[in-house]
Amino acid sequence: MSTVDAQVQSPIEGANQSATILQLAMAALRLTKVPGTDSNNNLQQRLRPVISLSEVAYHDCYDDCWIVLYDRVYDITNFLRLHPGGHDVLVENAGRDATIAFLNAGHSAMAIKSLKLYEIGELPPNECIYRCVGKLTLTNLPD
Ligand code: HEM
């Protein structure tokens, strides 16, 4: 058995126990991922609740305001009063897809990043218009 291929107990929490010294060295240099360490991210992506457009449509007022952006659903009820662009433009789009309005306002990278705070789910695949496999209509979609 060569020194490089020796099986070691991984010092990285949650990492696959059978990771080799070579795999750990490459992970340290950020050339690759240690097997077993990225499963949480994949799990999070798979666990987004699916919410249909017809359900979003029920939440269409100041006290209960959901919107759809880039095929994801956001509950922005508690954000309305804080929005730098005012609450009116948000209530006008309550209960529906506001992606084009959001894009036209020219939001900053910081605004796009803050979307995560309000995300509650995603549209079912047959209602998606931006995140369709092999059919992306926009570049730079938020994570
Ligand atoms: C959860 C959804 C939203 C978030 C987190 C958000 C966040 C923000 C933030 C942080 C700003 C300050 C400027 C910037 O950093 O870009 C802003 C400005 C603005 N937003 Fe939004 N926004 C949201 C949805 C929307 C929607 C749906 C519309 C349009 C209907 C809109 C229209 C505007 C406008 C017009 C401004 C400009 C205000 C000005 O510069 O006078 N926003 N938004």
UniProtKB/TrEMBL annotation:
This is Cytochrome b5 heme-binding domain-containing protein. GO terms for molecular function: heme binding; metal ion binding. It holds the Pfam family Cyt-b5. Belongs to the cytochrome b5 family. InterPro entries: Cyt_B5-like_heme/steroid-bd, Cyt_B5-like_heme/steroid_sf, Cyt_B5_heme-BS, Cytochrome_b5. PANTHER family: CYTOCHROME B5, GEO08203P1. Keywords: Heme, Iron, Metal-binding. The keyword Electron transport does not apply. GO terms for cellular component: membrane. Residues 48-124 form the Cytochrome b5 heme-binding domain.
